[in-house]
Amino acid sequence: MLAPRWPAVLIATATICLWAAASLASPVAIQHAIDEGLRKHEGRALFYASLAFGLIALAVYAFQALSTYFVAAVGQRFVRDLRVRLFSHLQRLSMSFYDRENSGRLIARMTADMVAISEVLNSAFTMLIQALLLLIGLAVYDAISVYKTKHMVTLADAAASQRLPIMIVIPRHRGYSFLRQRSLKEQIDAGEEREAMFMGLGDVIIPGILVVSSFVSLGNRTATVLGVGGNLVVALVTIVGTLLGFAMLMRYVMRGNPQAGLPLLNSGAIGGYVIAYLAVYRDLGFGIG
């Protein structure tokens, strides 16, 4: 039923991608305003950064409106066609069928279930696309901030030096104390073996976005595995994929150099989601179409 509407689905997906890209571009304009405008006292740089931020904000609202319109249009037309087909099918059934079946159950299929399907098409589609784009975008950003600009290393060093409770600390021996933690940058520059491994809370929370999104967006699918809902199976396998990515990450971290966590963690989460979805639902829609 979605085959004739693939152009509209692609347009809806494109507008969601543009919405996400515009949202991710806002911090870049703010960074330019601070680094080039405020710190260097350059009024022109501050003006252009402010102008860029305003244009980006307008683009965010515009793409959000377009994505909402196209997603709702596709979803409502799909539900309308489904209602027509279901009603036509009920009209072709024999009278003996209505003697056996409860009329209230049939009415529920025509009303309540259609509402649930409409909600999934309108909200879950956008939620899943945004979750996937967010995971990919943040993985790229994490890699750049660790390997190229290295400001994430500076941030971790500052957080550790000030003993801020915003990181997960994994000691390498029993006698370790976070209160006596030395500068991470100094240890890295000196090539010393670090006493503990540090992991930002975002490395745990961000892959979890896909776990929650898959559980919610696939909640109205009827597939089960050994009596367990298919959405729960997909969410659990996504967690397993994240843990496999974490195991690979720890292998690199044990070598002593700073490593970007999100590329491996998010790749594991996305890989787990794709494998579980194909195994449970056996279609190439991946909960999007």
Number of strands: 4
Main pleated-sheet profile: 2 strands, antiparallel
Number of domains as seen in the coordinates:
2
User: If strands are numbered along the chain, what order do they take across the biggest sheet?
Assistant: 1-2
**Quaternary organisation of the protein chains:** single chain
Computed structural class: mainly alpha
**Radius of gyration over C-alpha positions, nearest whole angstrom:** 25 Å
Explain what the structure shows.
There is one protein chain. This protein has 289 residues and is mainly α. The chain has two domains: 1-110; 134-289, no CATH class. It is 73% helix and 5% strand. It has helices spanning 6-38, 43-92, 95-100, 103-110, 112-147, 151-161, 184-190, 202-217, 230-253, 261-281, and strands at 167-171, 196-200, 224-225, 228-229. Helix 1 (6-38) runs parallel beside helix 5, helix 5 (112-147) runs antiparallel to helix 8 and helix 5 packs antiparallel against helix 10 (261-281). The longest helix is centred in the first third of the chain and has 50 residues, at 43-92.
